[in-house]
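Saturday, quiet lab. Running sequence design on the structure tokens for the scaffold JK sent over.
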């Protein structure tokens, strides 16, 4: 199964060209990365990747608040946000930055369906650095597929993708180079949730 047969995924290859992508990777890689050991309910666990979370003032996200401090936008992240918003005609108020340092880093099967993302979460996912496959698995049928995410590509996860599919980035033990992934999200502010 290819991404084209998963109608809830749209891949734009070369959203950034190779030179821009390499520069963005280097700049993001040089940011201050926090420790990836977390204490949850008194137990320590190690996240198999490094993460930072950046959001507009007042935006809270339970996933990140459990693990991560909220950072403000850097000029680079803001510039990319503006470009993605203009291209997709969608607004985002936050971005989760993931660094997969090499093929040992991964993310297990999950879907991004936290309540704060609202009923129709559209997520824009940018890749810089190593090409990794995003695997997906249908929640009901078990149907599986994958899409390769090259450096500079933009993957749009349409809202129903989170409803119907789980996704993962599996480990690749022989891969020595890193991948940085930006996932732009729109988190519904707490006050709007109360009013809704
Ligand atoms: Mn995800």
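Result came back. Writing it out in full:
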């Amino acid at each position: 199964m290819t991404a084209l047969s998963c109608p809830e995924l749209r891949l734009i290859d070369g959203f950034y060209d190779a030179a821009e992508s390499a520069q963005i990777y280097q700049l993001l890689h040089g940011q201050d990365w926090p420790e990836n050991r977390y204490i949850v309910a008194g137990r320590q666990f190690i996240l198999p990747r490094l993460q930072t979370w950046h959001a507009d003032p007042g935006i809270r996200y339970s996933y990140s608040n459990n693990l991560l401090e909220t950072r403000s936008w850097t000029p680079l992240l803001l510039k990319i946000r503006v470009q993605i918003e203009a291209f997709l005609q969608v607004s985002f108020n936050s971005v989760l930055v993931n660094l997969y340092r090499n093929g040992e880093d991964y993310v297990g099967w999950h879907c991004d369906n936290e309540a704060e993302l609202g009923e129709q979460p559209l997520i824009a996912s940018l890749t810089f650095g190593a090409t990794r496959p995003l695997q997906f698995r249908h929640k009901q049928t078990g149907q599986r597929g994958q899409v390769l995410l090259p450096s500079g590509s933009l993957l749009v996860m349409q809202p129903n993708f989170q409803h119907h599919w789980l996704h993962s980035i599996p480990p690749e033990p022989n891969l020595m180079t890193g991948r940085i992934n930006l996932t732009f999200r729109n988190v519904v502010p707490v006050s709007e949730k109360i009013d809704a």
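Notes for JK: The mean pLDDT is 90. The domain at 3-195 is CATH 2.60.120.590 (Jelly Rolls). Ask whether to fix the surface positions before the next round.
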